[in-house]
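job 3f2a | input accepted
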Amino acid sequence: MIGVLTHHWAKPELFHKADKLLKGNGEAQSKAPGFVNRRTLYSISDNTQITSLVIWDDEDIYEQWKASAERALAMTGAENLWRKPPESHRFTTSD
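job 3f2a | predicted structure (95 res):
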């Protein structure tokens, strides 16, 4: 399995809209093959930062999700919500 940790920094006036969009993306992810789990983290030190940790079966499955029409639809308009580009990192997981 892999974990994908993605940091988003919303424009302050668009924080709630950004959070709603990311929750919708999480809902779409939960229906995708190979999805395992998702957690949303809200920064204590930066009230514009929303971070998600999503666990997938493997990298190939995640790449399929990234290229999917479902993801494109769920993230429509996202680029207008961020005050800086999102950062994403992939990790292997261990139990």
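job 3f2a | The first strand starts at residue 2 and ends at 10.
job 3f2a | closed
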